[in-house]
Amino acid sequence: MQVGFIGLGLMGRPMALHLEKAGHTLHLWARRPESLAPFSTVNAKTHATPAQVAAHAEVVIVMVADAPDVEAVCLGADGLASGGKPGLIVVDMSTINPNAARNIGLRLAEQGIDFVDAPVSGGETGAINAALTIMVGGKAAAFDKVKPLLEKMGKSVTLIGDSGAGQVAKACNQILTGVGVMAVAEAFNFAARSGVDPAKVREALLGGFAYSKILENHGQRMLDRNFKPGFKAWMHQKDLRIIMEEAHRMGLMLPSAAATAQIFNAIVGSGMGENDSITALQLLEKMSTPE
């Protein structure tokens, strides 16, 4: 297929390379020329605008930071809508507000362009290993067409429901992972401050009902003091902001998510936003250390 890809950062770069390796021709646009460098030796064509990408592609995948970026790429001057032909499918794999996804989809539909929201979980490691969990919202016919592409980037691809449903599922994922990271960080900090080895605590807890993938994987990274970003703390802060905005809109109480959102605000405010989200442990340690 002729596949457009916009958003060639930490996650998007390996995702796009998986598609090229599978035999698809890539059509690329990036704000920064250095983002295109890894594609100089593969079957990829670069374009001057998103509109030009859309003009050459059957499907365009977008992987950017937040809703304003998605809207600019899709609907801005020289955006996908101005170059795409009826029948084009835009797959947004960013994490954005579900309502924003629905609205962008409605505006693209006015020009005969299908919009699929397909946010991911798995971080940089999942992107590199084509092991992402992909949660999809959109029309079944559009999903069926893009599913083979998604399967080249993820190990789990699920159609959740109509437009916006993928983003709702991702929000649920971010509640569970955010609260989970904080729970493991709190437990390890409590153990250490009590004079007990957190590594031994983790070993014991992995064998009981407290087991979780976060305790297994993120817990080990905490013990290794490996705060290199696979998923940056500022991005988790952004995702939790989206969740709380939706909660306010619906008048919905999300007490655990709200408390976790405040912790991630503090992480970013303390200058650690570029670290992995497990840097929550460092914040707790900092707050627990006597002067």
Tally of contiguous helical segments: 13
Mean pLDDT: 96
Task: Name the helicity range.
Answer: 40-55%
Q: Give the neighbour order of strands across the main sheet.
A: 3-2-1-4-5-6
Strand tally is 9
Q: Beta-sheet strand percentage?
A: 5-15%
Rg value = 20 Å
Write a structural description:
By secondary structure, the protein is an alpha/beta fold. The protein is built from 13 helices and nine strands. The strands form two sheets. The protein has a six-stranded parallel beta sheet, with helices on both faces. Helix 8 crosses helix 12 and helix 8 runs parallel beside helix 13. The longest helix is centred in the middle third of the chain and has 29 residues. It is globular and about 65 Å long. The termini are far apart. The model has no long low-confidence stretch (mean pLDDT 96).
